[in-house]
Design goal:
It is built from eight helices and 31 strands. It has 423 residues and is of the alpha+beta class. It has helices at residues 6-16, 33-36, 154-166, 186-195, 197-200, 225-230, 272-285, 317-328, and strands at 19-21, 24-28, 44-49, 58-63, 71-77, 82-87, 89-90, 93-95, 98-100, 102-107, 115-122, 125-126, 130-133, 139-145, 172-175, 204-207, 246-250, 253-257, 291-295, 301-302, 304-305, 314-315, 333-336, 342-349, 352-353, 359-363, 375-376, 383-384, 392-399, 402-409, 414-421. Strands 7-10-4-3-16-15-14-29-30-31 form a ten-stranded mixed beta sheet. Strands 17, 18, 19, 23, 24, 25, 26 and 28 form an eight-stranded mixed beta sheet that branches.
């Protein structure tokens, strides 16, 4: 048998269109490849999901109308002649009386600060190519959306499209829980995703679970089947609590996404508070990023309510449980939602205003469910959205030692800004 040296093997592999590489199969794109593959493959709700470190990896998910026989993702540097292929797994699930035919692929060994393009393959069929950009270590911008739950998701679509149009340089986007109004209603999930389908193909999504993700169609509490299955977020390594809470790095920041639904989900998975606190401490012990940011749906403050004199101003159970953790672990900022009102509290420590503590921002609303004249202003509120409130979104920019959070209304005007700096 004739042997072949490494140089000749690589030459053979490239001319034949195949090179084995770490993390995937590398293929040299042939001149006539576009003619060989039929661009007739259609997938639905194609989305990038955040991974633990997006500078070198990405999760892709999509739905299909019929089973795929050889689902793959082909990825290449923009204008490159070589590509990598990654197999997709069937991640289908059944909810709301319907089977969601779904596929998931994990992309690895990407280069940081690089412009890629990818497409979905199935046998001889393919989709068009879509953008995929990996971040650098120095600078990024993200868009943060509050509760988008709605009866009419056109309202969500308008604020989302405004945010993306004004911030074409955003590298990922966040929704701080209550993504939909009813977690079992398949039509609401479709309506939500349709409004951001163009953006989800291009930049990663960071989901946060809210209490409305746990509701049945008749408004009883259940395990959040749709949320858990739609978003393959990074593994937290905690048995029985997969996709409930997680963390990820992006640029110079470490993000922690927490689950505030311990009341709703106690009978399904008890002891969430202690499990999550222990995980949080272990996660932060491994962190080396300059900035630490927490995302959690329910807010840390308790508000007085018009018409309910017995309800006192103070702190919620979320605040009482986790604010000491955020302080001891030296978090820089905490973004919450749930109350459908924008409130900037500045920096708090030991339950009082203190410039040495984390910044706390209640992010507002991005849907059509409004709580007009419900909350009585809290003594710790520093900036309150114009009343009656309309939809809003936030941008978050981190550049080396600089942090900037800005809030914008649905007319495009900016009404709040917070800047932090590390010496």
């Amino acid at each position: 048998m004739k042997t072949i040296n490494r140089r000749n093997f690589l030459k053979f592999a490239l001319t034949s269109g195949l090179v084995i590489g770490s993390g995937g199969i590398f293929s040299a794109c042939k001149v006539n490849e576009e003619g060989m593959l039929k661009k007739n493959l259609e997938v639905k709700f194609l989305r990038q999901i955040i991974t633990s470190d997006s500078k070198s990896s990405r999760c892709l998910m999509w739905q299909a109308d019929s089973p795929m026989t050889e689902p793959q993702v082909e990825v290449r540097l923009k204008n490159s002649a070589e590509s990598m292929k990654f197999s997709a797994v069937n991640s289908s699930f059944t909810d709301d009386g319907e089977k969601n035919l779904q596929y998931t692929a994990q992309l690895e060994n990407l280069l940081p600060s690089s412009d890629y393009e990818y497409r979905i393959l199935d046998g001889e069929s393919c989709t068009d190519f879509f953008e995929l950009k990996t971040p650098s270590e120095k600078k990024f911008k993200a868009i943060i959306f509050p509760d988008s739950q709605s009866s009419d998701y056109d309202v969500w679509g308008k604020i989302a499209q405004l945010a993306f149009e004004k911030n074409p340089d955003a590298e990922f986007f966040i929704n701080v829980g209550d993504i939909v109004d009813n977690g079992e209603d398949k039509n609401q999930w479709r309506a939500w995703m349709e409004k951001v389908s163009a953006q989800m193909k291009k930049i990663p999504f960071v989901p946060v679970m809210g209490n409305h993700e746990t509701y049945t169609r008749d408004w009883q509490v259940r395990f959040p089947v749709a949320y858990i299955n739609y978003f393959a977020v990074p593994d937290n390594g905690v048995e029985n609590f997969a996709r409930r809470f997680y963390s990820f790095d992006f640029g110079a920041a470490h993000f922690v996404v927490l689950d505030s639904q311990w009341d709703e989900l106690e009978k399904f998975q008890p002891n969430l508070i202690e499990v999550q606190k222990n995980w949080l401490r272990e996660d932060l012990a491994k962190n080396s990023k300059a900035w630490k940011i927490a995302l959690i749906h329910k807010d840390v403050l308790q508000y007085r309510i018009n018409g309910r004199p017995e309800r006192l101003e103070g702190f919620s159970d979320v605040g009482e449980i986790f604010m000491p953790e955020f302080e001891s672990l030296n978090f820089d900022a905490v973004f919450t939602a749930h109350l459908h009102t924008y409130r900037n509290r500045g920096r708090l420590k030991n339950f009082v205003a203190d410039e040495s503590g984390p910044l706390y921002i209640l992010t507002g609303l991005a849907g059509d469910v409004r709580y007009s004249n419900l909350w009585i202003d809290h003594a710790l509120d520093k900036v309150i959205a114009p009343q009656p409130e309309i939809d809003n979104y936030l941008t978050l920019e981190i550049y080396d030692k600089n942090f900037s959070a800005k809030c914008f209304l649905s007319d495009g005007s900016q009404f709040d800004e917070v800047n932090l700096r590390k010496d």
